[in-house]
């Protein structure tokens, strides 16, 4: 079983069904399940989604999540959906081979086949992570913009770990220890490129193919957690909101956090 702080599972199962199979569609606003406070009470996607959405809004004070999830039957259907949503064929192939889910504005595309044998903590982690990405699109006014991918992923991981902690699946201390162990096994923090090499989605997918994904996402979580420690969650939200007005990622970072991204990167590098 993969560590509970993980959200993106490698899509390693072979495609075996027609890409014409329609996805299973779930819109959070249409679900009638009641949210629960404990993770062990979650046994279906309806309960998982409404519980995660309620936790994000009530506990973390994030905006209401408005999202529709498309559960595609297998990797081939997931890849076809990516192409239908504007991915070039090669990019869709690489993304489908590397990731289990991809989010956009108010939508999440999922390779359900890759989650069939996953325990509920892993599924809950993925859902919390991807729903956070939908909020990032909302804050930016719809387009993805040029916000740094390490921070997009790191903040989604931060929300994910918050959810897993509050649902009782882990603790902050255990989550950090798990991440540090995975990073150590991957060669240590020095093995990863600098944050400036994790800026675009293409950068990230390439890195996800090179490194253990749990270590890579954990590294981004550590960076985001450090940024939140220095400046708070409100500043992170303000960073994403700035992309509704400007795609100057360096200026947006400086305006939101009061320091250049290069300054933060150096502080993160030096942190033990």
Secondary-structure map with pairings?
Elements: E1 24-27, H1 45-59, E2 68-72, H2 75-84, H3 89-98, E3 101-104, E4 107-111, H4 120-139, H5 149-166, H6 172-185, H7 201-210, H8 213-231, H9 233-241, H10 249-257, H11 261-270
Helix pairs in contact: 1-4, 2-3, 3-7, 4-5, 4-9, 5-8, 6-8, 9-10
Offer a quick outline of the entry:
This protein is of the alpha+beta class and 272 residues long. It has eleven helices and four strands.
How would you describe this structure in keywords?
272 residues; alpha+beta; Neutral Protease, domain 2; four-stranded mixed beta sheet; 4 strands; 7% strand; globular; disordered N terminus
What can you see in these coordinates?
This protein has 272 residues and is an alpha+beta fold. It has one domain (24-270): Neutral Protease, domain 2 (Orthogonal Bundle), CATH 1.10.390. It is 53% helix and 7% strand. The protein has eleven helices and four strands. It has a four-stranded mixed beta sheet with strand order 1-2-4-3. β3 (101-104) and β4 form a beta hairpin. It is globular, with a radius of gyration of 18 Å. The relative contact order is 0.14. The model is unreliable at 1-19 (pLDDT under 50).
Average pLDDT: 90
Structural class: alpha+beta
| CATH architecture heading | Orthogonal Bundle
Order of helices and strands: EHEHHEEHHHHHHHH
Strand residues, percent: 5-15%
Count of individual helical segments:
11
Could you list the spans in which at least 5 consecutive residues all have pLDDT below 50? 1-19
Strands side by side in the biggest sheet: 1-2-4-3
Please give the radius of gyration in angstroms: 18 Å
The level-1 CATH class? Mainly Alpha
Looking at CATH, which topology would you report? Neutral Protease, domain 2
Alpha carbon gap, first and last residue: 28 Å
Tally of individual domains: 1
Principal-axis shape: globular
Q: Could you estimate the helical fraction of the residues in percent? A: 40-55%
Major β-sheet annotation: 4 strands, mixed
Q: Find the count of extended strands (DSSP E, 2+ residues).
A: 4
């Amino acid at each position: 079983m993969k560590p509970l702080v993980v959200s993106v599972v490698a899509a390693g199962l072979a495609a075996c069904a027609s890409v014409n199979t329609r996805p299973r569609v779930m819109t959070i606003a249409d679900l009638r399940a009641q949210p629960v406070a404990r993770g062990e009470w979650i046994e279906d996607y309806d309960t998982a989604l409404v519980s995660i959405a309620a936790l994000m809004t009530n506990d973390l004070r994030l905006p209401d999540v408005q999202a529709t999830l498309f559960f595609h039957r297998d990797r081939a259907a997931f890849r076809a959906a990516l192409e239908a949503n504007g991915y070039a064929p090669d990019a869709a192939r690489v993304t489908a081979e590397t990731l289990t889910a991809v989010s956009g504005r108010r939508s999440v595309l999922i390779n359900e086949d890759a989650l069939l044998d996953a325990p509920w903590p892993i599924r809950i982690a993925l859902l919390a992570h991807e729903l956070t990405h939908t909020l990032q699109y909302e804050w930016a006014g719809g387009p993805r913009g040029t916000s740094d991918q390490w921070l997009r992923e790191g903040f989604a991981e931060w929300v994910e770990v918050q959810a897993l902690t509050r649902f009782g699946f882990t603790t902050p201390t255990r989550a950090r220890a798990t991440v540090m162990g995975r990073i150590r096994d991957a060669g240590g923090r020095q093995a990863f490129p600098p944050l400036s090499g994790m800026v675009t989605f293409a950068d990230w997918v390439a890195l996800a193919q090179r490194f253990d994904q749990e270590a890579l996402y954990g590294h981004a979580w550590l960076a985001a957690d450090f940024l939140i420690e220095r400046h708070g969650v409100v500043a992170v939200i303000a960073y994403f909101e700035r992309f509704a007005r400007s795609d100057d990622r360096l200026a947006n970072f400086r305006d939101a956090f009061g320091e250049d991204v290069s300054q933060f990167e150096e502080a993160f590098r030096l942190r033990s």
